[in-house]
Design goal:
By secondary structure, the chain is α+β, with helices and mostly antiparallel strands. It is built from two helices and five strands, in the order ββαβαββ. Helix content is 29%, strand content 34%. It is globular, with a radius of gyration of 13 Å.
Length: 85
């Protein structure tokens, strides 16, 4: 399973492995990006994917995010990806 965050209310949700690779995570991330910029009027969005979870980093890249740095968070290395409005 992959874990993703619902941008509207902070809930986490899962995709079962059999639906991976269908673009659902990218679609959800694009919707969060649009919601964050258009509805919440945020100026910047940040994603913190685990450095070992390549599909999550690919989703961040697909929605226009750029890696800023690597940090230690939750006891592991994570990328700091961001995109500005």
């Amino acid at each position: 399973m992959a874990i993703y965050w619902d941008c509207r209310n902070g809930d986490w949700y899962l995709f079962v492995r059999r639906v991976w690779g269908n673009g659902y995570a990218t679609e959800a991330a694009l919707a969060c990006k649009k919601y964050g910029f258009e509805q919440m009027n945020l100026s910047k969005l940040v994603s913190l994917p685990d450095i070992n979870i390549v599909p999550s980093t690919k989703v961040a890249k697909r929605i226009g995010m750029k890696v800023e740095k690597i940090i230690n968070k939750w006891g592991k290395g994570v990328y700091v990806y961001s995109v500005a409005k």
